[in-house]
Amino acid sequence: GQNIDQPTEMTATEGAIVQINCTYQTSGFNGLFWYQQHAGEAPTFLSYNVLDGLEEKGRFSSFLSRSKGYSYLLLKELQMKDSASYLCAVRGNQAGTALIFGKGTTLSVSS
Amino acid sequence: GAVVSQHPSWVICKSGTSVKIECRSLDFQATTMFWYRQFPKQSLMLMATSNEGSKATYEQGVEKDKFLINHASLTLSTLTVTSAHPEDSSFYICSARDLGLAGEAPYEQYFGPGTRLTVT
Q: Hey, which of A64, B36, B40, B92 would disulfide with B44, CB 3.0 to 4.6 Å?
């Protein structure tokens, strides 16, 4: 079966660093995505990992360990606007297949 | 970046009526589009995969006769919710895969802004 787990909620303060974990068990794997979604809006792409290791993109970094079925999204220098839901998604074996989404982690950033 | 539009952005309809939602890729061609549904505080659930020129592939538990999908061109897919009921009220989001990125990573899927459907 397909299963993607991530914490439901997290809180942090401005300027801090937060790590959002994601574990997955899927029938195939061809990449892991992180998306940010504000309430009532469509998800926006943050990062993509297909090989093990860390991908850095400004204030956001994402890590993947395929052997452990594990990824994390690291957000640095948190800002109030980072308050949103963060979705971990896995793509199956074939390129072009749909993404399987986790339930999302709601991050609240306070001053 | 690539742009995907959805129309309408929100719609209110009466129970028993049908509603059509359009998903367009504005500046690229998409042989494949995906339709997702998202209930409040839930994640996106894939409903179906829409392939240009062929029948859509529906996920288990999604009624193909209730959610009609047509992908008549490389830039347009439509989802029609037939005989809508209050339990169909949800946020419907489409995404499109850029044909021009075939062979390149990371095969980003571009999401539309979503359509909020409320059935009364």
A: B36
